Amino acid sequence: MRLVILAEEPPAELRAQLVFLEVCTEEKLLSLFSLYKVKAGLRALPFLRLAGITPDEVGEAIRPGDLVAWPLPERPGRKSRWMLMLA
Question: Starting from the edge strand earliest in sequence, which strands make up the sheet with 67-71, in order?
């Protein structure tokens, strides 16, 4: 199982294959990096670099059993939130 970080919501046909797990904070997402191998899409690399994380793989291909995360639109005055789904 890997944690796949995307820069934005995946296309509808891919999202239809995912199962909702939760909306989580950035802090919770960062805590998952120590539990799973991390795969990141190219556009998500700047976020990981800011967090001091080097992904194990680069790309956006998703396998069954992967956790998939992407940022939700930010709202003023709120901490960043991430969608977390299971492939």
Answer: 19-25, 81-86, 67-71, 2-5, 37-40, 57-58
